[in-house]
Design a protein that fits this description.
alpha/beta; Udp-n-acetylmuramoylalanyl-d-glutamate--2,6- Diaminopimelate Ligase, Chain: A, domain 1; about 350 residues; 4 helices; 12-stranded mixed β-sheet; UDP N-Acetylglucosamine Acyltransferase, domain 1; about 20% helix
Length: about 350
């Protein structure tokens, strides 16, 4: 597929500088791009490549002042990174829209309801009373359990497993190997030291425009629902336990874990390998640094924490600075002790 600079500018509300008819058919990094490719410049440290790149069309920020002539056609926008992301999304949509139909072999229950424009890949399993919306794409080797609902324009990548009774909204993307609705980790200790399993009879509800990375696990609730609210983005290899709620537009980086019944607010940012204990609340706008261990509720909105156990980010940085100075402080204290002894000896 080929697009002209004028067509691209129309899609991202940009202004063209140069040949509006110049066309591209692929994407490339600005330092490696070739003729016929589209690139972008958002980070100033890559600006030197703007003057040497072979890219045909480049998206740049409105406020960028050129230091020398550029061979490529430029498209100026308010935010080059966001504009480029929008284009990539459009490109991906065009590619997935071409996937329509049911490959064989695949099992689809006679009681399942399938919308229009749906793609179901080979070896997929669609259970009883499943409802699949329009333009849904289910890639090969996926499992959709009984009574699952999947909203319009959702993409289920290969090998995803969605257990019974789970509810997915519209325009969700779930990447390969993820499990939605596995049993929560619920076991009752017994007098003899053994553990009796507590049946997990709830479900998982994932609202619109959520993206979940590869090999993540979202456990079903013991009773009620584990909820991932609209706009949340979860990275690869994340564990979300039973009855957790993840707020609107919250982002969680890879290898983080959230224990049962914790309520995470809106617009929270959680770094990689962070761990959050169960039955606490995380206030809206909180920022949890990578590898932090959160052991108690964060009650004040827009709080930043770090460390294990996690505490206020600014205080943590001060503590680290003090720790680095401890050897020097010890030396100075010893010098002071020596000086005090000498003064006392002189008095005697």
């Amino acid at each position: 597929m080929q697009f002209s600079a004028a067509q691209i500018a129309l899609l991202i509300n940009g202004k063209v500088e140069g040949n509006t008819d110049r066309t591209v058919s692929a994407f490339g990094k600005i330092e490696e791009a070739r003729e016929g490719q589209l690139s972008f410049l958002a980070n100033p440290k890559y600006e030197e490549h703007l003057y040497t790149t072979k890219a045909s069309v480049i998206i740049i920020n409105d406020n960028l002042e050129l230091k020398q002539p550029v061979d490529a056609t430029l498209i100026r926008v308010k935010d080059a990174y966001t504009a480029f992301a929008t284009l990539l999304s459009k490109y991906q949509e065009l590619k997935t829209q071409q996937l329509v139909g049911i490959q064989q072999p695949a099992y689809i229950s006679p009681t399942a309801k399938i919308g229009e424009g749906v793609y179901i890949g080979a070896f997929a399993y669609i259970g009883e009373q499943v409802t699949i919306g329009n333009n849904v794409k289910i890639f090969p080797n996926s499992y959709i359990g009984n009574n699952v609902t999947i909203g319009d324009n959702t993409i289920i990548h290969p090998g995803v497993k969605i257990y019974h009774d789970c509810v997915l909204g519209r325009s969700i993307t779930i990447h390969a190997g993820t499990v939605i609705g596995g049993d929560g980790f619920g076991f009752a200790p017994q007098a003899d030291g053994s553990f009796q399993k507590v049946p997990q009879i709830g479900n998982v509800v994932i609202e619109d425009h959520v993206e979940i990375g590869a090999n993540a696990t979202i456990d079903r609730a013991t009773i009620g629902s584990t909820i991932i609210k609209a706009g949340a983005k979860l990275d690869n290899l994340i564990q979300v336990a039973h009855n957790v709620e993840v707020g609107h537009n919250t982002v969680i980086a890879a290898q983080a874990g959230v224990s049962g019944s914790t309520k995470i607010g809106n617009n929270v940012m959680i770094g990689g390998q962070a761990g959050i204990v169960g039955h606490i609340t995380i206030a809206d706008g909180s920022k949890i640094n990578a590898q932090s261990g959160v052991s108690k509720s964060i009650k004040n909105p827009n709080t930043a924490v770090t460390g294990s156990p996690a505490f206020d980010y600014t205080s943590a940085l001060r503590s680290q600075a003090v720790s680095r100075n401890l050897p020097d402080m010890e030396r100075r204290i010893k010098e002071l002790e020596t000086l005090v002894k000498q003064l006392l000896a002189e008095k005697v």
